[in-house]
């Protein structure tokens, strides 16, 4: 009986490319997202999940947290962390430069308010804020602009998503939505 050798694994440093001194965090599970799995077939308002959510009644159990005149706040259906919100204009526009000044201002105001409300309800240590403009930049729904508000806690990153293709979420989306929507209407003063 011959003894089998364990497969040899090359260190990243021996792969092709110039050494740049940076560590790499490989996330192959994100390829399904990048390849467009479960994205709308076209970029029209007809198939846009943000337009559908904006036009749904609040009692239908969707994830809208709060509504403004020109934009609204919704829980991300595929959150990075509990409390991950999206600020979306009602109007179906793709690019930040397509917003009118009043739309831009309300998106900014709702982003600021979202941070205050999430802080009061969930107590994060910080936030990631951002917009991915276009498919190449990582926008999941590139046809409808949306601002991410992602609460962060010290030590919230772990290797579950990489090793086990599993994300540990301590709270159900419906519960997160309910708690934030209730606080949104209670928290009047913010700055």
UniProtKB/TrEMBL annotation:
List residues binding substrate: 76, 148
Span of domain HIT: 49-159
| Catalytic center residues | 146
**GO MF, one annotated term:** nucleotidyltransferase activity
- Tell me yes or no: is Transferase among this UniProt entry's keywords: yes
UniProt keywords, alphabetically: Nucleotide-binding, Nucleotidyltransferase, Transferase
Source organism superkingdom = Bacteria
Q: Where is this motif: Histidine triad motif?
A: 144-148
Where is the secretion signal located?
A: none
Task: Write down a Pfam family by its short name.
Answer: HIT
The protein's matches in CDD domains, at most eight in alphabetical order, are given as: FHIT (cd01275)
Q: Which PANTHER family match?
A: AP-4-A PHOSPHORYLASE, HIT FAMILY HYDROLASE
Q: What is this protein called?
A: ATP adenylyltransferase
Organism, as annotated:
Rarobacter incanus
């Amino acid at each position: 009986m011959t003894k089998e050798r364990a497969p040899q694994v090359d260190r990243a440093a021996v792969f092709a490319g110039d050494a740049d001194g940076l560590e790499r965090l490989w996330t192959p599970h994100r390829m399904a997202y990048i390849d467009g799995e479960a994205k709308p077939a076209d970029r029209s308002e007809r198939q846009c999940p943000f337009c559908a959510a904006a036009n749904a009644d609040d009692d239908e159990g969707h994830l809208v947290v709060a509504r403004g005149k020109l934009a609204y706040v919704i829980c991300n259906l595929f959150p990075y962390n509990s409390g991950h919100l999206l600020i979306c204009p009602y109007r179906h526009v793709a690019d930040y430069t397509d917003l009118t000044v009043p739309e831009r201002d309300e998106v900014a105001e709702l982003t600021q308010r979202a941070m205050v409300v999430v802080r009061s309800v969930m107590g994060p240590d910080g936030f990631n804020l951002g917009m991915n403009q276009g498919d190449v930049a990582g926008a999941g729904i590139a046809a409808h602009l949306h601002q991410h508000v992602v609460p962060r806690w010290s030590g919230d990153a772990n290797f579950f998503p990489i090793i086990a293709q599993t994300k540990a979420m301590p709270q159900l989306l419906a519960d997160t939505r309910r708690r934030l929507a209730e606080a949104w209407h209670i928290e009047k003063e913010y700055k």
